[in-house]
Amino acid sequence: MSRYFIRRTLGAIPLLFGVAVLSFIFMQLAPGGPDALFGRLPRMTDERLAQMRANLGLDDPMIVQFGKWLGNLLTGDLGTSYVQHRPVWHVIWDVFPNTVYLVMAGLFIALILSLLFGVIAAKNPYGLFDNVTAFISYFGLAMPVFWLGLMLQILFAVKLGWLPSAGMHSAGETGVADFLEHLILPAFTIAIGSIATWSRYIRASTIEEINADYVRTARAKGMAEPSILSRHVLRNSLTPFITVVAIDIPLYLTGAVLVETVFSWPGMGRLFFDSLNRRDYPVLMGILMLGAVLIVIGNLVADLIYARLDPRISFE
Fold it and tell me: Which of 53, 177, 187, 270 could be joined to 58 by an S-S link, Cβ 3.0–4.6 Å?
């Protein structure tokens, strides 16, 4: 296992380097940048703008700029924000926990509802519940996440008044209950696509395991149905499901941009959107690199869990 971990870690280096190269090139080719950002400032002269570009190293050739940025990146320095004039790490870290709360809540909702819908549907395939969950799944896959978020805001916040429409806290409130009320709608919005997909995977794999020979043998020995389902069927049906979850984790990072923007949730997705509008390219590149690292780590952890669930799998 340790050798596999080392191989995967070393294999991630070219991937992260490719992400760094593409991120830097795209930011260089993007319109605007410091000229558009600082040029709008009052009393900004051409001389001051040229001096600012020189201080930021933007007059150097692209390959020199990339070398400096990559060298700083290897030491953990993501640069300085053009807008906030603070280290990018500090800018990202201020909002990173908020995105973690949202993503973890979305994953929790998606996992619980997917398992519930998938297992119940598998117990009675092509029945009423199976058909209803299939319809909900197709609906969830077809609906754009930003549209669904707006509809949920209109229904539960505007029409019914049950939940707040945006933000992370109400004015003057800092309690946990108020935070959870604000978390419900964006967490469910980011989870709906996964619920639609994962529940069908759970249904299919559970049906396959229920009809396996070892399950019939367990029933013949008199083992209780709940014990068969929990100790045998779910354990084996979750093995391919882990792979699906690992592949879909990047969708949470990309979906957070839309969800956090719609619900004004102060997280990394909202920061990415605001930085894109403000041409704050160091923050954009920092978020892209951090997202790539998190995806690599997530897939590695998924592989380790996969081996833990299925003893037949060995990475040595």
Answer: 53
Residue 153 · residue 185 · CB < 8 Å: yes
Which of 98, 99, 96, 21 shows the shortest CA–CA distance to 65? 21
Q: State the Cα–Cα distance between residues 142 and 227, nearest whole angstrom.
A: 36
Residue 266's pLDDT is: 87
Q: What is the pLDDT of residue 38?
A: 61
Question: Residue 144 in contact with residue 200, Cβ under 8 Å?
Answer: no
CATH number at residue 131: 1.10.3720.10
Q: In angstroms, how far is the first alpha carbon of the chain from the final one?
A: 6
Residue 144 lies in a domain: yes
pLDDT at 174: 73
Q: Write down the H helix ranges in the chain.
A: 2-29, 34-38, 46-56, 62-74, 88-123, 128-142, 145-152, 176-210, 213-220, 225-228, 234-262, 268-278, 281-309
Q: Per the domain annotation, does 208 fall within a domain? A: yes
Tokens (6 digits) for 80? 């300085």
For residue 231, is it within any domain?
Answer: yes
Predicted local distance difference test score (pLDDT) of residue 34: 60
> 44 lies in a domain?
no
SS3 39: coil
CA angle 231, 201, 7 (to 5 degrees): 80
Confirm if 199 and 137 have CB atoms less than 8 A apart.
yes
User: Which tokens in the block code for residue 14?
Assistant: 């070219």
Those residues of the chain that have pLDDT short of 70 are 1, 4, 31-46, 48-49, 51-59, 247, 250-251, 254-255, 306-316
The domain total for the chain is: 1
Alpha-carbon distance 199 to 43, whole Å?
A: 58
> Which value, in Å, is the radius of gyration of the alpha carbons in the chain?
24
Range of the domain at 162: 95-309
The C-alpha torsion from 81 through 87 and 93 to 94, rounded to 10°, is -70
